[in-house]
Amino acid sequence: MKLEKRSVFGWPASGAGSASPRNGIAVHYDGSNQGLAKKSHAACREYWARTRKFHMGPSRGWADVGYSWAVCCHGIVLEGRGLNKVQAAQPGGNATWYSVTFMSGPSESPTAAQINAFRELRAWLRGKGVKAAIRPHSAFISTSCCGNILRKLISNGTLAAAPPKPTEELDMTPEQVFNAVWNRDAVPAPPGGPSGPNWKGASFLTNTYRDMAKASEVKALRTEVAGLKSELAEIKALLSAALPPKE
């Protein structure tokens, strides 16, 4: 799961009250189309910051952005109130249900990456004891939220499907990979192959350099032998010319 925590936005810990939402996830959307799928992820961050500012402003006066998390069209989960906080999103379920908003509007279908981000978030929450249920905002109060498109994805089980198994991917920078793999093996281990008890990553480089050196030596020897053969051929020709012909 690709998660951007509150610290990415410079936000302190949420000022919302503590709770233990375990009943499931309430799904939300924005009341107007956002067009974020055609923009960079920076636009999603700006949208999330504006949403929090609006929720904490005079028209709402909430302690924080109303939702636990948001999922953007680029497949990234953005932290709102986060874990173990009272929501301000679905009256009647604010203390018992987590809330997740899709950064989309009434006529916008979520992207495949967005749906997968929701599934990954849900799987993560299930691992923390949250129940499997998924409900639209309209299940708690009379509202058009979360729209017909998302309601259909809830009812037909699309959002409840398991996320695909993650591919083998290192969540590390090139520098971290270098330090973890090569700097750790700063002293080359004795040769002996990967099955040897002292084999390390650096052994691969040691043996590779050794084999390259051997190959270079063999090439030089072959060149030298070829030269000697040529000289011997010349000597043989000279001797043949100097000797009298056989009678």
From TrEMBL:
Gene3D superfamilies the UniProt entry points to: Peptidoglycan recognition protein-like
Name used for this protein in its record: N-acetylmuramoyl-L-alanine amidase
